[in-house]
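Side project, low priority. Logging it here so it doesn't get lost.
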Amino acid sequence: MKIDALLTKDFAALVPDARARARDGYDALWVSEAQHEPFLQCLEVARAAPDVQVGTAIAIAFARSPMILANAGYDLARYTGGRFLLGLGPQIRPHIERRYSMPWSRPAARMRELVLALRAIWASWHDGAPLDFRGEFYNHTLMTPNFSPPRHDAGPPPIYLGGVGERMTEVAGEVADGFLIHQLTTERFLREVTLPALDRGAARAGRARPQLGGLVFVAAGRDDAELDAAVAGVRYRIAFYASTPAYKPVLDLHGWGELQPRFRELTRQGRWDEMGALVPDEVLHEFTVIGRPDEAGRALAAKYAGIADRVTLSMPYEHSPETTREVADAVRAASV
C-alpha cells in the first residue's frame, strides 16, 4: 500500500512542504483546489520534488472544459516526465452553479463523457487520431496543428476520479485509472458500496478494477494532550462534511442519517464551534484511526489492507511533521 501526502493549502509554504514530504519518502504529493489554482501548485511541487508523483486531489472538473483539462494534464505529464496524476471531482451543485457559474446536470453521466472527451483529445495529440468527439454535454471536432501540442514520450496522465455515490463510483470503474475516496467514508461503506460499484463499472467496460486511493482520517498524538487535540480536530471535520447531503449515503448505511440535517442546520446558523462535540464516539471511531502515531499507523494498515492501493493521511489539526512521519512509517512497516 502506497502512502501519499496532501500538501498545505498555504501557497507560500507549498515548496518547503513538498521538499520535506519528499524527503520523508511519500509516494505521491497531492494538492487540493481550495484557495489556489491546482495546476500551478502541481508545477511548483514538481519542481520542488523531482522524484515523486504529483497530483490534483481534486481539480474541479465541471469548472473547466475538457480541452482546458486536456491541455493542463498533457503539459504536466510532459513536464514531470510521467509523474503527474490528474485527479478530478464534480464538486456539488451550489458551488458549480453559484461559485463557478457553470452548468450542472446529471453529474455521473457528465463526468463519464468528460473523461471520454479527454481521452479523445489526447488521442488526437498523442496518436494523431482525428478529433471527432460528439456527446450530449461536450463536442470537440476542431483541432489544427497550430493548437495541437507536440507528442511527448510521457503520454497522457492517469485519470483518478473522486466521488461518493454509487453512480459516480461506477463511472470511475468504467473509464478511470483510479478512484479517490473521500475521508468521510468507512471500511464498511468501501466493502459494501464502493468496491462493488467499481466492479460493476469495470465489468461493463470489460476491464480490471481501477486503483483505489484517497484520504483517511487519522487522529494521532504523541501524548494525551496532542491526542485530545487531534480527536477534537477530526470530530469537527467529520461534522463539517456530514452536514453536506452528498455524503449522507455513508451515514445512512450505518443508521446515522439523522445526523446530516442536524449538522446542516448548525452550519446555517453559523454555530460552527458546536458541531464537533456532537459527533458520537461510535461515529468518530468508524471514520478514524486513533492512537499514538505507531498505533494509528498499524491500525490504518490493518483496516485498509486488501481494500486500498494507496492512502493519503488526513490529519486536520495542528501536529508536528514528526507525528505524520511516525504514522506513515508505521503504515509502511505494517504493510510489508
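Brief comment: The chain has a mean pLDDT of 96.
Revisit when time allows.
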